[in-house]
Automatic annotation (TrEMBL):
<feature type="transmembrane region" description="Helical">
    <location>
        <begin position="193"/>
        <end position="214"/>
    </location>
</feature>
<keyword id="KW-0762">Sugar transport</keyword>
<feature type="transmembrane region" description="Helical">
    <location>
        <begin position="342"/>
        <end position="365"/>
    </location>
</feature>
<dbReference type="GO" id="GO:0016020">
    <property type="term" value="C:membrane"/>
</dbReference>
<feature type="domain" description="Major facilitator superfamily (MFS) profile">
    <location>
        <begin position="20"/>
        <end position="467"/>
    </location>
</feature>
<dbReference type="GO" id="GO:0015293">
    <property type="term" value="F:symporter activity"/>
</dbReference>
<comment type="similarity">
    <text>Belongs to the major facilitator superfamily. Sugar transporter (TC 2.A.1.1) family.</text>
</comment>
<keyword id="KW-0769">Symport</keyword>
<feature type="transmembrane region" description="Helical">
    <location>
        <begin position="443"/>
        <end position="463"/>
    </location>
</feature>
<keyword id="KW-0813">Transport</keyword>
<protein>
    <recommendedName>
        <fullName>Major facilitator superfamily (MFS) profile domain-containing protein</fullName>
    </recommendedName>
</protein>
<feature type="transmembrane region" description="Helical">
    <location>
        <begin position="74"/>
        <end position="93"/>
    </location>
</feature>
<feature type="transmembrane region" description="Helical">
    <location>
        <begin position="163"/>
        <end position="181"/>
    </location>
</feature>
<feature type="transmembrane region" description="Helical">
    <location>
        <begin position="312"/>
        <end position="330"/>
    </location>
</feature>
<feature type="transmembrane region" description="Helical">
    <location>
        <begin position="12"/>
        <end position="33"/>
    </location>
</feature>
<dbReference type="InterPro" id="IPR020846">
    <property type="entry name" value="MFS_dom"/>
</dbReference>
<dbReference type="InterPro" id="IPR005828">
    <property type="entry name" value="MFS_sugar_transport-like"/>
</dbReference>
Length: 471
């Protein structure tokens, strides 16, 4: 029921705010598609023949090392160039986010992604392909900076975690769609890879059109001295006129933020050391679970352990389905069980699965002999269990926790450091995984398992619970 003295909640109001959440979260769809599409495209022979003929020849050689058939720095650069671009652009995005608002930053994200899709899908040379990925990276940097903040600032405190996780949910949906598109386009010769890259324009179009209808967040409006408009927007998104307490909290936070010298210096002040360290380390740990190594190169990885090209793409579709379902579980569980419980449980789950996968590969996968059917199936099942653990914890919470722990005066810059750290280590993993797989072989899974153990101890001793604490 509406509070006393407030207007009745209309169906339109409920529908509108839901649409706003979905539209903003489409930035995650765009990001997820970019994550998922690169691994499938690099597994397509037509793509390799056009851009990486040496890798294609190496892939086809008889008795090629199972662990090293895709080890090529340029192939990895195709995937990783997006993330180094996103790293740099996230700091520019933080300034745009503070000065012009979250909504306009989201709009810029859609423009850069549309440009990037156009350039990559029409590429005829490798430099053009890389330029397109860099443009996509700028769009991803702007989107990943603005959208988690937008969702956290727009959501009521009681469901803030679930609303924020919509971003990661749409990331997983984007990965799943990319896997399905890769599987379908792998049968279209010789331009299936162009179709696969071009489909990435659809979520960017949704975000572009949606940026004209979503409201700016009350926090951003009040922070930029549009106080009356901020109050009206808060009443609209809360579907009641009784918002005095929350409105005053935001006004007080903006007044405090206005008294400091600047968010760049404030983010390094002593009181902000804990959220800065936690926000950045969570991003490091998120990448060193090994999840993006699996998501980027799932088709390649499954080929390595004995699946054919089509079987590998289909297996990665199964991975994407599990990713979506378990992220959806996080939407409903994070505000009930809290952040710490989900993080700690998943560490146990991921540590066990990574260790067993490493053991199976160490015993049964040699450089020239692949896994048999039963061991290959076991690896796929263990990967799915691993992905499930990540999807209901470190995946969505890696974006949620930094978005809700910084005070307003340091929020956009602090979150930019978190985003850029994520992009830096995503770049490191994307650029190095295939080489690590070649040189470390099965021990790469023990390497990631060791990191999972470290991050579990970090959460246990250093990460506070943020459930039901005002932003």
């Amino acid at each position: 029921m509406a509070a006393s003295g407030s207007k009745p909640i209309s169906f339109y109001s409920k529908f509108y705010i839901g649409i706003c959440w979905v539209v903003a979260a489409c930035g995650g769809l765009m990001f997820g598609y970019d994550i998922g599409i690169s691994g499938g495209v690099t597994a397509m022979d037509d793509f390799l023949i056009k851009f990486f003929p040496a890798v294609y020849e190496k892939k086809k050689r008889a008795k090629e090392d199972n662990y090293c058939k895709f080890d090529n720095q340029l192939v990895q650069l195709f995937t990783s160039s997006l993330y180094i671009s996103a790293l740099v652009s996230s700091f520019l995005a933080s300034k745009v986010c503070s000065k012009y608002g979250r909504k306009r930053t989201i709009f810029c994200s859609s423009i850069f992604c549309l440009l990037g899709v156009g350039v990559t899908a029409s590429a005829h040379h490798l430099p053009q392909l890389i330029v397109g990925r860099i443009l996509l990276g700028v769009g991803v940097g702007f989107g990943n900076e603005a959208i988690p903040l937008y969702l956290s600032e727009l959501a009521p405190i009681s469901i803030r975690g679930g609303v924020n996780i919509m971003f990661q949910l749409f990331v997983t949906i984007g990965i799943l769609i990319a896997n399905l598109v890769n599987w379908g386009c792998s049968h279209v010769h010789p331009f299936g890879w162009r179709l696969a890259l071009g489909v990435g324009g659809f979520p960017a179009v949704i975000l572009f059109l949606g940026s004209f209808i979503i409201p700016e967040t009350p926090t951003s409006l009040i922070e930029r001295e549009k106080v009356e408009k901020g109050q009206k927007t808060l009443q609209k998104i809360r579907r009641t006129e009784d918002v005095d307490v929350e409105f005053q909290q935001i006004v007080n936070a903006c007044e405090v933020a206005g008294q400091v010298e600047g968010s760049w210096s404030e983010v390094f002040s002593r009181q902000n050391h804990p959220p800065l360290i936690i926000g950045m380390l969570i991003q490091v740990f998120q990448q060193f679970t090994g999840i993006n190594a699996i998501m980027f190169y799932a088709p390649v990885l499954f080929q390595t352990v004995g699946f054919g090209s089509n079987g590998a793409l289909l297996s990665s579709v199964c991975t994407g389905c599990i990713n979506v379902i378990c992220t959806l579980i996080a939407n409903f569980s994070v505000d009930k069980f809290g952040r710490r419980a989900l993080l700690l449980e998943s560490c146990i789950q991921m540590f066990i699965t990574q260790t067993i996968i490493g053991g199976i590969l160490y015993v049964h996968l040699t450089p020239t002999v692949g896994l048999n059917k039963h061991n290959g199936l076991a690896v796929v099942v263990l990967v799915l269990i691993f992905v499930a653990g990540f999807a209901w914890s470190w995946g969505p919470l890696g974006w949620l926790i930094p978005s809700e722990t910084f005070p307003l005066e340091a929020r956009t810059v602090g979150f930019a450091f978190a985003v850029s750290t994520n992009m830096l280590f995503t770049f490191v993993i994307a650029q190095s995984f295939l080489s690590m797989l070649c040189h470390m072989r099965s021990f790469i899974f023990f390497f990631f398992a060791a990191w999972v153990l470290i991050m579990g101890l970090f959460v246990l001793f250093f990460v506070p619970e943020t459930k039901n604490i005002p932003i």
